[in-house]
What does this fold into?
Amino acid sequence: MLFFVAVCFSASATTYPTYPMSASSNEHIAQSWSCSPRLTCGKIRSCAEAIWYLQNCPWGGNLDRDCDGAPCENLCGSSN
It folds into this structure.
């Protein structure tokens, strides 16, 4: 098995795209998404979910392989 680990370095703090969500949406997210087990982009269903993992899980940075701030380019596209 081959594993890829991306390490992103930046002179300034990295900011990630966010989407406005209502309180009920945040409650739903907190109930349905978890940092365990660790997921890959192929198992994540939406861009919002990928961003949640990126911002909340210790392994979330691995979802942004090219360090452009957009996790799972197949779901979120590229900011370039």
About this structure: Residues 11-16, 18-24 have pLDDT under 50 and may be disordered. The longest helix spans residues 23-32.
